[in-house]
Amino acid sequence: MSVSAGRKTDRTRGLFIVLEGGEGSGKTTQAALLTEWLNGLGVPHRLGREPGGTPVGEAIRELLLDKGELEMPARTELFLMLAARAAFVDDVVRPALDEGRVMVADRFEYSTFVYQGIGRGLGLERTRELNAFATDGLQPDLVVVLDVPPGEGVRRQREGGKVADRIEEEGEAFMARIREGYRKLAAGDPVAHVVPARGETMELHLVIRQILRRRFPETFGPPEG
Fold it and tell me: What is the value of pTM for the model shown?
């Protein structure tokens, strides 16, 4: 069963765009560049991140990522992620879509499928089922997976002065499983695009813009060039 099985698209609402990828792949930077571009186009939009985006989500994010001293069972980690997502969907994503906005999210369900379902070994199908309850069936219209080798992602973070969080400290073997998990999911999902993320920041931004224009020209305009 593909990730997109059962996905329903309601064209009366806004578009839900998600940026995914492993650590150091540039998701947050690209999400910010997308919002700048959408501002220039005059396209109503909203930017959010996971876990987080709401008061309860940010509190859970601190518990999940910043409390490295905590011994957290994998199932506990999964349920906390999904609790944050339920609040994010209800308080941020659905209202934005109902207003006809483009919702840009830095991570969403792919992260749970890959990190907890595959990386933690909790099982992809079970994770999907629990996630569907947390999201009430809401799924993205487009998922852009930024693909970068784990070693390079770690190097980028170190050069940027980022301190590794609890999950990032799992090591390169874990991150290699994450990368392969993203590739596996995207290969079976018609709304997913895997984009090599080893080039320059603005070059990558232009590639993402082209993907958006090809998929949704009525919102973003025709492809450039």
Answer: 0.89
